[in-house]
Amino acid sequence: MARKKLTLGSILDVMPYMKIAIDEQVDTDAEGNYLVNFGYLRVSTDKQADEGYGLDIQENKVVTYCKSMGYKNLVLFIDDGYTGTKMTDRPALAAVMAFIDKFNDGESNIRIDTFIVPRMDRLGRTLLGTLQFIQDYIVCAKDAKQSTINRNKEDINFISVAEPACSVSPNNAQGKFLLTLFASLAEYDRDLIVRKLKDGMIARVEEGKWPGGGMTPYGYYYDDKADTLIVIPEQAEKIREVFRLYIEEKMSPAKIATRLGFKGEKIVLNILKRKSLTGCIEYKGKEYKGLHEPIIPLERWEEAQRELENRSVNRADSEHLLSGLLYCGECGSRMRYQKWNKYGDCKIVCYSTQKSTRESKPYLVKSDSCSQERFWASDVEDAVAEALFEMSYLANTEDTKAPVYIDPFEAIEKELKGIKSKLSKLLDLEDDFDDDILREKIQTLSSRKRELERQLSDEQTRQSLQKRVDHVKDTLRTLKETWPSMTPLMRQSTCRDLIEKVIIDKEKGISIKLKLHSFLMKKEEVGTI
């Protein structure tokens, strides 16, 4: 009686990432194992398909090759949308590895006879990753010198359709060399693409263009023709309301999310922190002026950052006016509010004087012998508030420097744009002319460009500090009149806006270090242009 002809469909469970391409017959070896041919295809993006790397093109090349060689079966393993820089996290390639492992462990009788790829870079985009895969899963164990997991009794026949001279055979030195060479070229080609993409992206953002349509911030949509963001009016109104509720009404992100219909407080926090809403582009740790229209003025965004900073202080006793601002004048440790009686009155105590803190949080203790006293919180708060009222005179101090009538930022930016334009033209000429004068001009312009970029950064810092100084002065100027109408949370937030620290000393009393002084010192360090 004739033996029943075996097909792939009768011996394989086909998963979503698998496709049977040829299914005429499955032969067996002397031990009764099924001899199956595996093909592997991969694309990482839709763009690759547009550039001739599409899965249909890869499949056609592999199937055509297999038919020309007379292969009677072929199952394709397909990774659609997976990078070639990682050999892990690819379901189809992981399945190939699993088939090899199970056969070597005696758990399966499906033996891979030939492993085919359309070209080397489809298997991997890194030299070491590709070669390690071949060491671990393709060559026989006795030749896999750099593998601790290979248990193959013999080589799996390895074919790259586009590079047929490649070989894993130990007797084919030229084939092994070419395999290494093409694996290297796959990585080199990827590195060139990445470099071009990075350079192109930097050039885009320097021109103020948004870096692609992905990750478009809430409040905008991406116009691919204009290469910039366009404001969505109804979303922009929501964003402005987020900032108003957070800054003026001191509302929590969770409550803002509930009121405005966002899914959670994380979305609100992301909106508050996103500087691109001010019209800039943040890319790779640097900031560029964008072409898109701002939704929030820079001053408003900075105000929100100060409020975020203030609220980020440990909130364990956050209802108290001076939480997070109190320091011991004797040992330098932080001080905290401690409930003192059943009426809710509190005293302010030094962490170093508390035995429980020394045992549970020793990092808060500066001295084991601190003799700081305890102070009624209400007395300290009243004294601090009164001291702040008396500091209103600081708001009337004038800057003695001559007024600047031309915005330095605008002037520097204009010159920098001109320098970049000239540099670009000269660099294009450099490829065609070997000229010392040309190189000297390029060097001079490059040096001036670096100097202007430094000045621009300094001026941005100086203007930001000036805005913070102005904000503190404005707050101090009207503090005594506005204090009675403030809620406890607003008073607390105002204190954190104004005060860097409150130092309490049993001999010298209370001293207040204002943030204003720190801002002015930093401003002097930066200087003016």
Task: Please give the structural blueprint.
Blueprint: H1 8-11, E1 18-23, E2 27-28, E3 34-43, H2 46-53, H3 55-68, E4 73-80, H4 91-104, E5 110-117, H5 120-123, H6 127-138, E6 157-160, H7 173-206, E7 220-223, E8 228-231, H8 233-247, H9 253-260, H10 265-273, E9 280-283, E10 286-289, H11 298-311, E11 326-328, E12 335-339, E13 346-350, H12 355-360, E14 375-376, H13 377-390, H14 408-430, H15 436-482, H16 488-498, E15 499-505, E16 509-514, H17 515-526
Parallel strand pairs: 3-4, 3-5, 5-6, 11-15
Antiparallel strand pairs: 1-4, 2-3, 7-8, 9-10, 12-13, 13-14, 15-16
Could you explain how this protein is built, in words?
The protein has 529 residues and is α/β, with parallel strands linked by helices. The protein is 47% helix and 16% strand. The chain has helices spanning 8-11, 46-53, 55-68, 91-104, 120-123, 127-138, 173-206, 233-247, 253-260, 265-273, 298-311, 355-360, 377-390, 408-430, 436-482, 488-498, 515-526, and strands spanning 18-23, 27-28, 34-43, 73-80, 110-117, 157-160, 220-223, 228-231, 280-283, 286-289, 326-328, 335-339, 346-350, 375-376, 499-505, 509-514. The strands form 5 sheets. Strands 1, 2, 3, 4, 5 and 6 form a 6-stranded mixed sheet that branches. Strands 11-15-16 form a 3-stranded mixed sheet. Helix 9 crosses helix 10 (265-273) and helix 15 (436-482) packs antiparallel against helix 17. It is elongated and about 100 Å long.
